[in-house]
Specification:
Helices cover 46% and strands 17% of the residues. The protein has 855 residues and is an alpha/beta fold. The protein has an eight-stranded mixed beta sheet. It has an eight-stranded parallel barrel with strand order 24-25-26-27-28-29-30-31, surrounded by eight helices. The structure holds adenosine-5'-diphosphate and magnesium ion (MG). Adenosine-5'-diphosphate binds next to β5, β6, α12, β11 and β12.
Amino acid sequence: MSELLHVGNGARSGALEAERFVLAFGEADHRQVRLLGGKGAGLARLTAEGFPAPPGFIITTDACRSVTATGTVPAGLFTEVLEHLTTLERHTGKSFGAGPSPLLLSVRSGAPVSMPGMMDTVLNLGINRETAVAIAEASGDRRFMADVLVRFHRMYSEIVLGGSGEAVAEAAHELVEHAGPRDAAELHDELWAACQRAVLDEVGEEVPAEPREQLRGAIEAVFRSWNNRRAVTYRDFHRIPHDLGTAVVVQSMVFGNLGSPSGSGVVFTRNPVTGDPQLYGEYLEGGQGEDVVAGTATPEQIAYAARRLPVLFDELRSQCGRLEALYGDVLDIEFTVERGRLYLLQVRSAKRTPEAAIRIAADFLREARLPRSDALAPVTAAQIRQLERPQFADGAVSAARAAGRLLTTGVGASPGQVSGTLVLDPDRAVKRVVHGEEVILARPITSPVDLHGMIASRGIVTATGGATSHAAVVARALAKPCVVGCGEATIEPDQGRLSVGGRVIAEGETISIDGLSGEVFAGALPMTAPAAANPDLSLLLGEADRLAGCRIMGRVTTPEHVATVLDRGATGVVTSVDDVLATTGHLNELIDSLLAQRDLDTLDLTRMEAGIAEVFEPILRAAGAAEVGVRAIDFQADEARELMQQTQLLTFYPQLSVPVGMPALLRAQLAGLITAAKRSGGGGRVHLAVRHVSDPREARALRELSRQAEGRVQVGTYLTSPRGALLSAGIAEESDVIWLEVRVMQAAMFGIPPRQLLTQRPLDDYVKRGLIDTDPRHAIDPTLHGILTAVATAAAEHPRCEVGMRLSGPVSEEIAATLYRIGFRLFAVDGDEVRPARLAFGKAPSTEPAASGVA
Ligand code: ADP
Ligand code: MG
């Protein structure tokens, strides 16, 4: 819609266009996140609700999209900006580029989806000779003026002109240290000249001395930063569409580095590492906010700061409480204190560890402050998967400590325990990972340019920075173990070594880290099996089950596995004859016997029948009253190819490639299962499902086989083709259960091997190149919608036949929501996906349809 308007209005001039791209905080509607970006929307909401946000305005994402599309800034945009600037001057009583009370600005990026630290921000913009002198006079502090000037110059040269920023910092350092008795104007002139020389040497260009030019340059740089390498990498990784664009927030500056008490910090309304309902965060006395966020200084914990400044932090606490209630979520808030006055600069949903997400959601449910489905919303299936991941084995940590392998202890910033090869450079980390190594990336400090290395690594270590630094925030977002602030360690990427005390660990050696305790060990530590469920998680998933009203069966292959999967909350289990035979060592026997006999008429499968009875008895016993779905042997499955010498078998028995081609084999499986069911004493329902059925007549033939077998095992059909699905109404007449395999159906629609839907390549590259508009691993393809709807309708008309969906691999929340919407309520998932799936289906009833599959 807005896109169309632009085209339509392209030829119009002045006033009308001026309405379009810029909105003051006070006039923006905070619900329009796509237009305002997350940061802009947050500031609009803070302003509307009367929280102390410094005033400013937002250039919408429409402008950025227009810049990306046309390569130039929309005509009239800058005029519109200047109009808003005039209003801002009036509002603040300050003047931009002039004394006596100069208005300085921050120019901040802010996309509709949080991309912390990926794009650029310029602070302290609006410095020239006159404002510098005025700042020195107003603050009574020439050093403050110098600090502001140098920071601006450094950020501008780095972000707008593409320099390193370091040259400026170095050039200025001397002069600031020896500020001497010069007056403010002289100090400004010397500093400005020195800084300009440094940038000119480095990038061949100067920082504009005219504040309005500075503003224009910074706005354009923020637009450009949407497509910088790290932002693009981040979007690829998180599957964020590249066409959203960023908004630009232009805001009046407040100063944490001016007078006392001043400072800046980041606060979380609850602990984002553990979920503990206490304010958590950091505060840097006398710092500008970027010092905290960039991790260039190690700040103090909020709890300490609160003891020193109780009144101020009581106010902060009460605002956090009100905001959490307003948003119904745990928030991450950037704030600055200028001479005792508190300002909020940013508010957003807090990135949190899986542990914290679950604890928080459970607390929200207990506190009953939100609709129950809202409490589940921030928890993801991926987080539950993460929570069940392996840890260091019992006693491994104390043994390593006793053996003197503890190298150092930093700040645990993102929990999880891992071992891996130490690598000190992001590019080298990526190289090693490509060659199959598992890597821990250690850096003096991580900056957003390290992102690709962080994504590739299993864990992250930094020497400086606190729990809210870039490394920490990104690691939590990636759910990777991370230790920051290892102050005792010296990390030298160029030398390829990490040293602590006298010990040196070279790149390529193994280290282990604990992202909760902050410990870093030399060498590898033994790992355990995944951790057991916790009570918070049980509470949450119980609620999810109630909301979804689905039955979720988990895939198993052994009796022990049955117990685990039922313990995870599965309502039943699914397994297959070939898997069970393979894991008990009987499959080769069967294949050998088939290859030895080679004659259908005299085929003797009694040993096989007995074998099936034997291996299934303990499985059915373990399942007790729970339902068991067994898939019949499938010699032509994609996965079976290598396993079962399929080519040879199919040469001798071409009948094996059609579902009911060899009734004797089906009879043997049915009879074996019936015996196993009898002996096991388990009372649950058991069915045998046959794959690749695509015709009601096949289903009728199967039903006939089961009648002859006369046991309490039912028959089901397992549809893998569009034909089968489209004829499901007829098939349902003849079956007790129909299963549909989502992955196989999707692959059939695309005509690619189903196994490619379980791997990253080649589809990652394919999607990135834009060659398909739905990623079948993450979304149901629109071509399949109609077919699935037909199946759901058929199922509804045949209540005696149940219809279930088999999902293999990690359960995609989007796929789960689509299937739920279409009407499916019975699912079978991999054994370790039972809990993630319970959550995904719990969220499904309140999930809105997604706009596009690839997004
Ligand atoms: P990011 O998206 O990377 O967090 P921000 O736009 O939030 O970038 O800016 C980085 C830091 O700059 C903020 O954490 C904040 O402390 C500081 N900052 C931004 N705007 C202002 C302002 N108006 N006054 C003071 N500090 C600011
Ligand atoms: Mg920020």
